[in-house]
Write a structure and sequence with these properties.
The chain is an alpha/beta fold. It is built from 14 helices and 19 strands. Helix content is 37%, strand content 22%. Strand 1, helix 1 and strand 2 form a beta-alpha-beta unit.
């Protein structure tokens, strides 16, 4: 279970009784937070920071605990911030500054100096907030009474984002082949990706998968076929093509287990040794949380794994998508998003069908793939691009809609959405910002989730939505 450490701040100026009360109040608070957030994360209390030495010791505990994904700090009393400098300089995990009080209301009839000295987050948290800002530490601030539902939901969001960042820092991406020839946006600075996000981008030849696929036993393939038929409708007589995809997934399962990778890319321009472009194999793995990027797009492969982790407790759909084509009926503009094959089945509005059709690109055998219409509802489209001297995250609010008419001759996953605030502004803003044609769409996450990830990782963030105006287009 992932863990957050709760580190309160005080000092010895107010005496031993005050510090005992601080510790008791913090135990009570942590107990309450665990009741509310225990399904997402465990919260563990560390000793109250009274000196720089205690602060360093607390931070070292958090840093050395592999289960720890982040730290919550709160100043119960005034806690002189110079005590926090050395400790905070050791901190590399996400930081939440909880700006709250143990008491919700002031006891107007009985309040005295002892009460004020004990309960002075308004004083202590500002001192602490200054030093965090002065040190330039990326962090999140949640302000409000800790028992209020709004505050609990914001702490929950921090926990989910922190867990995603923890996965990010330990993520290995396997690239089978390089990015698609001559395509710009799928490329990027892989070294800087590792420095900033922790992604280890490693190359393996596609022959590794071809070899493992050729070694797959009939029993292994049969087991994978049983999984397919239990989850999907078999809508093809070409069972051999489906078994070929099952071989690829058996191979990828073994490769992932043996290497510990959490995301991968392939490209139709480098399939030596494979008879098909992986379709069902990639779709099924994405539905299990494995990141994927086509045409060698390592950034979207890693980013999709991170965002799927962020959304894992929320239901809904999160995964890779590609911008494809438009319906430009005036005033009713829609986008059809899809890909040649690889859209995760989590976006299916009903039970997907397994179909086999020619691909028309890549020069390989007709691949098996999952075909379905997409879910509906509010969502976001988010991408990460390399701007040369920095990374940029672009997040657009969208509405996923039902397709206006059937598409019987389009045998791929079909996701349709409406751009906000409207087509003209929403898509122009995406283009001005340099948004890629590969992205992650989610009906689970919101722009607030993505903004927090960007803030905690020091990434430039651009949001597009109902609050975006035509005048905003001049700012990009």
């Amino acid at each position: 279970m992932s863990k957050l450490y709760f580190i309160p701040g005080s000092q010895d100026l107010y005496g031993e009784e005050c510090l005992k009360q601080v510790a008791a109040d913090c135990r009570d608070m942590v107990g309450f937070l665990n009741e509310k957030l225990g399904d997402v994360v465990d919260i563990e209390l560390l000793p109250t920071v009274e000196t720089a030495k205690i602060c360093v010791e607390d931070i070292r505990v958090a840093e050395n605990d592999d289960d720890c994904v982040g730290v919550i700090t709160w100043m119960h009393t005034f806690s002189p911030a110079k005590m926090w400098i050395k400790g905070l300089q050791h901190l590399t995990k996400p930081l939440l500054h909880l700006h709250t009080q143990y008491n919700e209301k002031l006891p107007y009839d009985s309040i005295d100096m002892d009460f004020m000295n004990l309960n002075q987050a308004a004083h202590g948290d500002r001192e602490y907030g200054y030093i965090v800002a002065r040190l330039g530490i990326a962090h999140e601030v949640v302000a409000g009474y800790y028992k209020h539902e709004r505050v609990i939901s914001q702490i929950r969001r921090f926990a989910e984002v922190a867990k995603a960042i923890s996965l990010s820092k330990n993520l290995t991406v396997a690239t089978f082949g390089n990015n698609m020839r001559d395509v710009a946006v799928t490329d990027g600075n892989r070294l800087e990706s590792q420095i900033r996000y922790g992604w280890e981008i490693k190359y393996w030849g596609i022959g590794e998968i071809a070899k493992l696929a050729n070694e797959a036993s009939d029993a292994e393939i049969d087991a994978k076929m049983d999984e397919y038929t239990s989850k999907y409708t078999m809508a093809t007589d070409n069972i051999e093509a489906v078994r070929e995809q099952a071989k690829y997934e058996v191979a990828l399962d073994k490769f992932i287990a043996g290497t510990g990778v959490g995301a991968f890319t392939d490209t139709f321009q480098d399939l030596f040794g494979l008879r098909q472009l992986p379709g069902i194999a990639a779709q099924n793995l994405m539905a299990k949380g494995i990141g994927f990027g086509p045409e060698g797009d390592y950034k979207i492969s890693a980013f999709s794994a991170v965002l799927m982790k962020m959304a894992e407790n929320r239901g809904g759909a999160t995964g890779f998508i590609e911008d494809y084509t438009y319906d430009l009926t005036e005033g009713e503009e829609l986008e059809l998003a899809s890909h040649m094959l690889e859209v995760p089945a989590s976006f299916a509005a009903s039970k997907p069908e397994i179909q086999v059709h020619p691909l028309g690109i890549g020069g390989k055998e007709d691949p098996a793939r999952l075909v379905f219409d997409g879910v509906t509802g509010d969502g976001i489209q988010v991408t990460l691009v390399d701007m040369g001297d920095h990374f940029r995250i672009i997040c657009a609010d969208i509405e996923l809609v039902k397709q206006p008419a059937p598409m019987p001759k389009l045998p791929v996953a079909r996701i349709m959405y409406r751009h906000k605030p409207n087509f003209a502004i929403g898509t122009a803003a995406w283009c001005y910002a340099g948004g890629a044609h590969h992205s992650v769409v989610s009906t689970s996450l919101t722009r607030d989730d993505i903004a927090m990830f960007a803030r905690l990782t020091g990434t430039e963030f651009i949001a597009i939505g109902d609050d975006t105006t035509e005048a905003d287009l001049q700012k990009f």
